[in-house]
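Task: complex structure prediction.
Instruction: return structure tokens for all chains below.
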Amino acid sequence: MKHPIGLSIRNGTKIYPGTVALSAADFDLHMGAVNVLVGENGAGKSTMMKVISGVEQLTSGKILIDDKPVTFKTTEEASRHGIGIVFQELNLFPNLTVAENIFIAREKTRGRVDIDKAAQREQTRALMERLEQDIDPDDLVGDLRVGQQQIVEIAKSLAHDARILILDEPTSALSAAEVEILFRVIADLKANGVGIVYISHRLEELIRIGDYITVLRDGVITGARSMKGVDVDWIVRNMIGESGKDFAKEIDHPFGDEVFRAEHVSLGSPAGGLLVDDVSLSLKQGEILGVYGLMGAGRSEFLECVIGRHPHARGKMYVNGVPLKEKTVAGRIGRGLALIPEDRKNDGLVEILSIRENMTLSSLKKFTRGLYMSLTRERQTVAEFVKRMTVKIASAEHAVSSLSGGNQQKVVISKALMTDPKVLLMDEPSRGIDIGAKAEVFRVMRKLAADGLGIIFVTSDLDEVMSLSDRILVMSNGRVTGEFNRKEATNGALVEASAIGHATSSRNKEHV
Amino acid sequence: MADQSLSAPSSPSSPDVLLILLKARTFIALILVFAFFAFNAPNFLSTANMVIMSKHVALNAFLAIGMTFVIVSGGIDLSVGSIVGLCGMVAGYLVLNGIDIGLGWSIQFNTLEICLLVIAVGVFIGAINGFLITKLNVAPFIATLGTLYVARGAAMLSSDGRTFPNLNGNPEYGSDTFRWIGAGEILGVPVSIVMLIAVGLLAAYIATRTPLGRHIYAVGGNERAAGLSGIKVNRTKYFVYIFSGFCAALVGLIISSQLVAAHPATGNTFELNAIAAAVLGGTSMSGGRGRIGGTIIGAFVIGVLSDGLVMMGVSSFWQTVIKGLVIIAAVVIDQAQQKVQARVALQAQSAIDS
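Output:
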């Protein structure tokens, strides 16, 4: 056989209190190949990987390595068997250097006491060369961009000589150029006989890179085969059990007057230079403006300037033609702006509070007369929004952290909508949520636009920006480098515009 | 397999009962402690003892209420004990001397004016804490540690370390009612207890029924998300430190009135008792979680425990050890509650999701 099986699960079942996360799964991991794993959020992908990497143990069934049953009580045991995992949420220490992060808990030492910094630095440099990254081993991880941090995380697994490497959504934070590098590294690892498990929501990416595919739905494996002849339709059918859900249905509706205008908005970076460089744009009522660009193109920073997170930003903004003089976030929310941040966990939600308390956080004034806040009316409003946004919850009093990504996103959107905004700013609204929830979020966006809301949304997904936007802006290096009507936009034109002035991507093109 | 998964959600009663027991743990602890001393300490249940004990508890409870807001907002206020001392000295000084403006005569104040001035001092120090923490970005621990020393030093300086004795006031100036704060009664209830009830109700109302209260929880839970939701984070933080300073000023007034004297070392390590009461009442040191009612019960557990042990003749060294053990046990049980609670929520949610 061309690709020997390095690890397999037989009849693997994992039961959490009240739910079956994985049900009688049979899974073979081929060495020297990319084993793609796909399914909606909560389908059991992560559970399966946690079982393989020793984070969790199977309730019943067994794991076989070289036909011998093994059990991993800890991640330590798994990694002794050569299993490395790169989690979707990065497990790095921002306060330590790149080299220190890579060798954390496995420090190179002289006599088990004194850390051999020179050796660590040397190996880190070699790893970075292999990954074609210009990252200094002595840089603090906290100073790196998210994409670079992801590379460090991968380097960490490589440093431990992983025989089996699990990558959980590794490209969600990477720029196109960085994705290419990652794919080259994966090809290199494959050639060296490493078995790779690759989890992602980006279907085209999976088809491109995968050798074997396993599709999960509700804890059951619904399809497993070699990648030959697999297309998006097949994957989607196995994932959601019916033939393809289309994204947002277009509702044609006329645009209203201009609702928001930004003129010459700039934001300096603490490191010198400009994060947002002279951005001007205008938005009409009912219009969806897609802002496409790579990570670090200044898209999120621009939205943050608009909502008032950076009081030092320069430039003028107008809502309904009236200058936006308010400096604070509260003032700008009052003027009809609302932001749905990219990073739900850190910027969007207060995880310790309940679903109800999160939803009403921006609009408590609505329920308050003088000093009296009506909890009854608050509960009613929350119930209304839960219904309207079809949030699936057991009780609005539960902690918001008990929800899945898609439902959390709906809570954040509800919070923004409760302030009755005129302009909705959405930063990567579909990040980290499954296909079903994505389609629902897009439907909501379409409907809001039809109701006359102006929407600016930022994304690095070409399909998304093409199918949702009425108009598309492309940003690169903090500047607007292209503007397209929906009719005239093409994938090629957008990608080209997003690479203008992008030093890394042009350099890498030469390599290719 | 299928049986197991079906039976789990159909027997929700056991974690529910467990959860209720865990949630009411501080209250249960109070009842147990109370019952224990009722049997073992002579005269524990006498009215006189109840009054004395609740006066003791009240002092700590005031500080703990202010501390709860601070901790829920994600901070800590170490300066409250020193504010108690300084405010006591200010009260004593005003009662004895008034303010000498250097023209050969001095301004004298009546009791109400003295109270307002003392409260102003407490609020002012709270505002300084707020300023250091929000505008100058000093970590709350360090900022309030600094004001702890400054306020204590100022209290010592105000009298060169001596005690202001005989704070009986002067009927001519209308300050002879100063003693009433510590010794008086309203409808048979000591004044300090009436004040505690008022402050406690006010704080509980703020915490649960006002946007301000909600904002305090949100800031403590996730400051960035709170800011992006339009909450005025700095204003919220100012409030909690000012409120804490206010509570400490009340304690300073009450103590100096009860003792009819002001000593500059008064209130030493009170902040630790206040933190202990808040934690015992279920306040999370990482912010975002805590209740005023819980804190007050926590203050009662600590107060009843230490007074009861004194009455049983247990040495003060052992008292300290026991107090420490109780606090640790409280936090350990708190962790258990969080776990059970999260599991119940996840169970209910996964039942919906699937």
